[in-house]
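The passage that follows is intended for readers who have already worked through the single-chain material. We present the inputs for a multi-component assembly, then the predicted structure in tokenized form, and finally a short commentary. You are encouraged to pause after the input and sketch how you expect the pieces to fit together before reading on.
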Amino acid sequence: MNHEIISRYIRQPVQLPDALRARIELTWDAEPIQLYALADLDHSLRLGESWMALGEGHVAVARPASSGAWDIESIERTRIRGVQLSPGLSANMLILVGEPNEQPLAMVRYTQRQRGAFENIRFVLEEALAGRTVTPAPADADRVYADAVARPVRDAQALVAGRESTVILRLLGYLAPYRREVTIGLGAAALVTLASLVPPYLAGFLLDRVVRPAQGGALGRGEAARLAWLAVGAMAALYIVRQAAAHVRLRLMSVLGEWVARDLRSELYSHIQRLSLSFFSRKKTGSLITRVTADTDRLWEFIAFGVVDVSLSVVMLLGLGAVLLTLDWRLGLIMTLPVPLFCWMIYWHGESLNARFIRAWRKWSRLTDVLGDTIPGIRVVKAFNQETREIGRFVDRNDAVTDEFNQIHRMWTTFWPVLMFAVHTTTVLVWVFAVPRLLGSGHPLSAGVFVSFLLYTTMFVAPIEVIGQMVRTINRATSSAHRVFEVLDSEPEVRDIPDPVRLSPVRGRVEFENVTFAYDGVRQILRGVSFVVEPGELIGLVGPSGGGKSTVVSLVARFYDATGGAVRIDGVDIRTLDTGHYREQIGIVLQDPYLFHGTVLDNIRYGLPSASLGAVVAAAKAANAHDFICKLGQGYDTVVGERGHTLSGGERQRISIARAILHNPRILILDEATSSVDTETERQIQEALERLITGRTVFAIAHRLSTLRRASRLFVIEKGRLAEAGTHRELLGKPNGIYRRLYELQLQLQ
Amino acid sequence: MTALEIEREEESEVVRLRTAPDGRLLAITERGPVPVRVRQCFPWSEPHRHLSLRDTEEKEIALVDDPASLGAASREALERALAEAGFVLEVTRVESIEEEVEIRQWRVETRHGPRSFQTHLDDWPRTLPSGGLLIRDVAGDLYRLTVTELDKRSRDLLWAFVD
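Having made your guess, compare it with the prediction:
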């Protein structure tokens, strides 16, 4: 997929040219290339193609020579003393620095598009300079490069837009379980179409075969009446059949559309629940919600009406054309020849409106920006007395939006009367050619055929309109289908093996053996972390932000799998465990606890819905939450708003602790659980936590080191490594220790 | 300019700057020449003033409010570095703008060569204080264009994105 993105959208080489790779590796005595990146700016900032390649002992920079070959400059990695990055707005410069006072060993310039690939090279070089060896596998070089270059597009559009027909076929595959309903629905729709074609014919028949012969005396009154009533009866029966079929078609296809939309929504939501956390860090929440709601709704519309309307309109137009040409080919040609032109006019109108709509949406988005800014930030607006200015900003943008939409209204209100005038012109033309023939000059034309003809012409407009808008209908549906299939096609990164191990219960021994972890496969967030935590130990994780503390606990909770080494729970590799069963025995209390929309009771019982009310109260008491819950208007049955906003931070935190206590986890993770509350609340939470941690293995992340005074051991995680480990006293005893420095800094601040 | 005049000019500078043989900008400090990079405080509002000079650790060495206050040699070195720091792709022609699922695909000709790039559908071009449009692609690259300087076809294609 990355190759497809690069060649289709980015239009740069999908990999290092083979000949260049061979030449570089030859220069390096067959040492394989581990990583490479494209430097797409030359020294004069023109777009071009140079390459930087990294091997175990060398770096090479290849620039195009005037002869069409490559100038390759190879540098031994032992000469590199530093790697400097000079970032700009769109031009970055990577400099490999040698000895002081020496010219830089290499300088390459590149746009932001190549940044990921160059960051990989920079990371490996910097690690080597720090005495740590990272050895990317040469076999992965192409994949790593393609992944880095394609990632921004892939994050924006994870599924490369395939052929529309493939997407539509896949979408129609969701109709497979409802074959019977689809067949009946399509049959009913076909019946409606066919039945629509008969009444004009009957009208002509009545006029030519009954009325006129009866008026001329060629047909007896009795026989004429019999035939007339037969025709009227047939007409009535046809209308009944037609409306019955229309009812069946509308009912079945609407319901069917809802079933398909329901199936898609359920499949989508179930799939989203199974996806790994990395997927959610790439996608915006709003975008995922839209896919489950608006996109599936749009697909309902397409299946319920689009599929049938489009196919039947084609059938209707072909049928009408055939009937008209059969009735009278001369008049038929007048009516049918302009049809492609009308369809094209509608298509062209749609395309013209499209640019208008983009403009209108842009202005609409500027209008909603004002709302999105000022409503959540209303306190700031008021505090700075900016209401008048904000009203002015809104009014200006509101006027601009209105102007654009009025332009759109002017366009369509002009177009449709013009189109209808063109259709009526063809009808007038039919009259112009038909009237002399009705009066006896030229090829004879019966009044009945003429009346049938006129009735058929009125039926032309609706299918022309549907076919003219077909492109837009299909585009909208495929776009929504793409967005839905993109999620469905994303694979969870954490998956259970067949017959996974179930630890009942988890004892709580956690072992990290030389664990490495990288979100993108190259830049390591954890670098060879090893430790053993015995059941019941309270481990405090401390260290600078971004050092890797949260990654350690994410691996314990198996939100991700380690990229190297092993994480073992009670001696069993975590990758072989039944993830769901294992997570039932893990509890997490986060810095910003998340409460779902529902009652306090629902939130406490979230992990254990069958818990008794007594157990809920006991958990709340242990969490120091019982008192404030009782003071709420409706006690435990009080509904807390979205994200629990009706409660203070400390109250939400204590409810989340009660939730964890009730869940009774064997391994507990506390991620900055007390960092955003006042001293009194912190004391109450600390008390609650002390009750919670008893008898469990606990990993507690905290910046305020005083909150970890009860920790059995402290792990200092810095730059992805376990830099120090020991008790508070042991770590303070290290003269130049990181923990000691952090502790002293905090003491000074107090 | 006499040697004395140059010396006086340099004495009044907030910082002395030179271009290294390899093209990097050097600030002449008490510790000797230090490689620095230029950060524009206002890349769109006032791109040629209020320039922050930072060392490789991103520590500010000097803030040049107005390059005119520097000596000729420093000014020349600074302007050269500024061209690189403020580099964005200048669009000279728009070949096509197509909408696909989730992204808008642009094909353009720039002063620096042809380029294809993608923007999010809801990521609209930004109007710059000095006029012109600024487009940011999904990778973070910036594209600047002055609509009035483009040919008619480019202007037609851009019509929906310009006020």
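Commentary: Chain B has a mean pLDDT of 87. The first strand of chain B starts at residue 16 and ends at 19. How closely did your sketch match?
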